[in-house]
Amino acid sequence: MTGQVRLEREGPIARVVLSHPGRLNAMSRAMWRELREAFVSIQHDTSLRCAVVQGEGDAFCAGGDISEYAQFRFEEASLRAFHEEDVWGGLSAVLDCDLPVVACIRGACMGAGVEIASACDIRIAADSASFGAPIARLGFPMAPREAQLVVRAAGEGIARQMLLEAAVLDAARLYTLGFLQHLVPADAWKARCDEVVRRIASLAPQAARLNKRTLRALREGNQAELDGAYRYAPAAEHREGVAAFLEKRKPAF
């Protein structure tokens, strides 16, 4: 069965589901394009407050769909187009999303899965999840911008171990090293994901979007964005948050 990336909306929450039955949700070339389309749609929907990325079934994403590789990997131009247009198009759309993006991870999170998780803001994993990028076994390296993304999220030491040893690491190790923000028993994983997502969706949506823009501007050195950091001063959401605190009531965001 052909894989797909589904976008589901549940009130203020967007759920992006990686689905490739029988392949542990491995990313096909079409799925990378669909990932980009999903996040472009999310970015332009002002009714949304949080986005979730998860795999269908018992895996997050086991990597790329190797069955497609012979179609494009053995010529430099087509390989470059795959990584720089398809893969980076999907990853950059996640990175550019102004909503908080939560990765809910269980089972295999390998290669492309690690890259997608690295593009998210908050990572929640079941304690049975496993992580790695053992592509050295397939005879090729990680593309430069994808490697930079993983280094930034997981740290250079972990990236080197995944790539140079083809190591598969358990969730407890990645939680200890800060790649994961939440580590929970497998039977509590869904409840914790729902709890975190609901908490984020209950907070000030404008503040979340501004925080995302500020963090992106700091990473990219975008001084023009930083120069406008205080333009929110007269905003209704700003006034409501402060007023609710002083009046000892729940804010109406």
Could you tell me the CATH topology label of the largest domain.
Answer: 2-enoyl-CoA Hydratase, Chain A, domain 1
Number of strands: 9
What is the fourth-level CATH superfamily of the largest domain?
2-enoyl-CoA Hydratase, Chain A, domain 1
- The overall pLDDT, averaged over residues, is 97
Structure classification: alpha/beta
User: What is the CA–CA distance across the termini?
Assistant: 42 Å
Strand order of the largest sheet: 1-2-3-4-6-9
String of helices and strands: EEHEHEEHEEHHEHEHHHH
Task: Flag low-confidence runs.
Answer: none
Shape: globular
Q: What is the percent of helical residues? A: 40-55%
Report the sheet with the most strands, covering strand number, pairing sense and barrel closure.
6 strands, mixed
Rg, Å, rounded: 19 Å
CATH top level label of the largest domain:
Alpha Beta
**Count of individual helical segments:** 10
Shape-level CATH architecture of the largest domain: Alpha-Beta Complex
Estimate the strand proportion: 15-25%
Provide the number of structural domains: 2
Organism: Ramlibacter humi
GO molecular function, one term: isomerase activity
GO biological process, one term: fatty acid beta-oxidation
Family: Belongs to the enoyl-CoA hydratase/isomerase family.
